[in-house]
Amino acid sequence: MISARTTVVCSMLALVGAMATTPALAESGPGYDDPNNWPQYHRSFNAWRYSPLKDITTANVKDLKVAWIHQPGNITHGLQATPIVIDGVLYYISAFNNVWAVDAATGKTLWHYEPKLAPISKQVFYAAASRGVTVGRGKVYVGSLDGRFIALDQKTGKELWSTQLTNQKEEFGALFSAPPQLAGDVLFGGTTGGDQPIRGKIYAVNADTGERVWTFDIPQDDPESFPGESWKVGGGSAWMPGTYDPRTDTIYIGTSNAAPDYFARDRKGDNKWTASLLAIDPKTGKLKWGRQEIPHDSWDFDAAYEALQVKDKDGKDVIVHLNKSGFVFVMDKDNGDLENVWQFAEHMNWVKGIDPKTGALIDPVYPEQGKVKLFCPNLLGARSWNHGAYNPGTGLWYSHAMEVCNEVSSAPDDPDSLKAISALSLGIESIKLVPPPGDKPHGRLDARDPITGKRVWSIRYDMPPLSSVLTTAGGLVFTGDMEGNIYSYDAKDGKELWKFSAGSGLRGGPVSYKAGGKQYIVIPTGLGSHAPGFLAGAYPQIKDLPGGAALIAFTLP
Questions:
Q1: How many Å apart are CA 144 and CA 140, to the nearest integer?
Q2: Of 50, 294, 495, 541, which has the highest C-beta tally within 10 A?
């Protein structure tokens, strides 16, 4: 379904200009360290998703062959994980929190852990969703579907400790769909629940014992921010992995939309700290600073995505943060002060713009009860949670986008509809995903200057890809689409260099590592998550796409 796929190279001048704004980086330090492994979720704390390995290049990538395939056997919601690879062992998670340790050179299973999940977890909305594990301190850490942090022995997979953190019966099945992350001896993470009538929280435990250390409550008990008791059901959960910068001992983690999503009458105010990027002290759980990107969010525009760290033209570290709203916020890493805000989405009508100096919304258009209104981007965002990648060699950030809108009529939640544990607090009478005005719904892979947003090249797809992106020092970009096509592109100009049909679409995170002296590219395949179901409103053909779950490793002959 990517017959409309075309590569648009804006100009070589644009490429040179983009590279000129990025200081030359020595091949050492964050992003380059530990090159043979993929030791954490984004490989490095700056969230680059960049591998310094360069045995596989633009010249030989066409020769990639399948080295091995690992199939977990359970295909519900596909494979959504980013594998972790350390010293020749690959760790990943499949549906229902099944954890696997695999020989990274052969694909042989070394151990398998299947948790005993509480029966109530079968009733939750996000049942099956498992997006990764964290490995460190001799342990493999899991955020579970029944609201626990779990630690396994890294060598054997034996369960070492388990800490119950949520009350699923009272918190609409709040669970951990993403892996908790390490910040020294602290393990932290947030739950699902931005679309549910709960108070979002970020939890931290001692990474060695599982003992609770602190809890950060996201909606604030503040009459000006959340009137009355609306904060108790204000949503705002931090449902994607945060990152930890050891240089400043700081956690960066984004939060989701306020609840109810589209009906905001009873939560007047800015609704802090929903739709925000937070900088938190890992030892105390205290807020160092916060940047609320969408005050009084009434469109389901989370700020939960990765906090990319790069240098601006003056050599200062900044955070580049994509919001579901279709805007990218560039901010000072140490205090959250804005350096720029640029528009990522092509189709945008919910606001006229965002002030790049103050962050103020310019003439926002809000949903209305009893009136169907068109909003672009849609509730899945200008991009879903699938992550972008940054290549320090080109100075470019590679990220997927989707150009799909939704028609919404808001309404207060019916109390009777909120009795089930799986209930959502969307605040709608109706919602429908539709094409953008004057255009067909589509997806893109953009290569952009992360500071200015200047687009250097772009590839258009008929259906929005849901895979994360990998880029390498070999000058390559790897990703895939919903039909199961895996691509490698030239990082400089977007030229397609290699393609492989995996049989089922991609939703997880590609990685690269070295084992037995050879560089591997490993791609999680198997279409899943709730996003394809929502997108079926604009793409009926999605319903006919096959499911699956297979980890496919490629290497050179």
A1: 13
A2: 294
Task: Phi first, then psi: give them for residue 289, nearest 5 degrees.
Answer: -160, 160
Q: Quick one: which H or E segment has residue 319?
A: strand 317-322
pLDDT over 70 (residue 2): no
What is the sign, positive or negative, of the torsion defined by CA atoms of 498, 501, 506, 512? negative
Q: How confident is the model at residue 132 (pLDDT cuts 50, 70, 90)?
A: very high
3-class secondary structure, 14: helix
Tokens of 256: 């989701």
State whether the Cα torsion 512-515-518-524 is positive or negative: negative
484 contacts: CB under 8 Å, gap ≥ 6: 501, 502, 503, 504, 505, 506, 525, 527, 546, 548
Among 300, 312, 462, 481, the one annotated catalytic = 300
Structure tokens at 553: 């490793």
Spell out the residues 6+ positions from residue 327 whose beta carbon is closer than 8 angstroms to its own. 293, 341, 342, 343, 344, 345, 354
Report the phi/psi class of residue 133: left, alpha or beta, with left for phi > 0 and alpha for psi in -120 to 50.
beta
Q: How many CB atoms lie within 10 A of CB 234?
A: 30
Catalytic site residue 266? no
What 3-state DSSP class applies to 291?
A: strand
Tokens of residue 523, six digits: 């791609």
* Sign, CA torsion 345/351/352/357: negative
CA atoms within 13 A on the CB side of 121: 23
Q: Is 280 left (phi over 0), alpha (psi -120 to 50) or beta?
A: beta
pLDDT for residue 537:
86
Tokens 């009459």 found at? 223
* Average pLDDT of the segment spanning 145-165: 98
Tell me the per-residue pLDDT of 364-409, one tens digit each, with 9 for 90 and over.
999 999 999 999 999 999 999 999 999 999 999 999 999 999 999 9
